[in-house]
Amino acid sequence: MVRLNEVRPGELVIDLPARTDAELYFIGRIHTPWTDRLACPRQGRPDGPTCRIELFAPWDRGLDSIAEFERLEVLYWLHESRRDLVMQAPKSDGNGRGVFSLRTPARPNPIGTSIVQLVEVEGSSLLVRGLDCLDGTPLIDVKPDRTLFKPLAPAQAGDFQVGDKS
């Protein structure tokens, strides 16, 4: 999102419901060079700056063996994003679209994801490249990139769609 609280033609703002059902633990904090949403990149780049993911105790103990993986999936809370836009009009074309058809940070539950390159593990911190979030962004989770894994179980009935030749 490259604008601050602007509602464009074709966009729809809703009233948010009362919060009743979810509880998240922020397990750390992400440190990047970007302190302004307007300057933050829209997509992370593997050749971008090295950023620090700091894990808080006691979750930092979960970093054991993380250095075995070259790529990680990072999930974070986009704490400065709007949550009330269900239709958005990208600046590139101005046509209204549903939020779930876009990779916008303005979402009902503003969870961001990035696939990052692991540069180094330093104690309770990970040095990575490929992030696209603000300095101080709350960390939700870190896991190995799912594309590094093959399914563990053999294929079974129901795994494939009708007509799939796989």
- Count every beta strand, where a strand is a DSSP E run of 2 or more residues: 9
Task: Report the radius of gyration as a whole number of Å.
Answer: 18 Å
The helix/strand class is mainly beta
Fraction in beta strands:
25-35%
Question: How helical, in percent, are the residues?
Answer: under 10%
The largest sheet has its strands arranged as: 2-3-8-7-4-9
Silhouette: globular
Task: Outline the low-pLDDT stretches.
Answer: none
Question: How does this model look, in words?
Answer:
With 166 residues, the chain is mainly beta. It has a domain at 44-147: YaeB-like (Elongation Factor Tu (Ef-tu), domain 3). Strands 2-3-8-7-4-9 form a six-stranded antiparallel barrel. The protein has a three-stranded antiparallel β-sheet with strand order 1-5-6, with no helix packed on it. The model has no long low-confidence stretch (mean pLDDT 87). The protein is built from no helices and nine strands. Helices cover 0% and strands 30% of the residues.
Main traits of this protein?
three-stranded antiparallel sheet, globular, Elongation Factor Tu (Ef-tu), domain 3, six-stranded antiparallel barrel, mainly beta, 166 residues
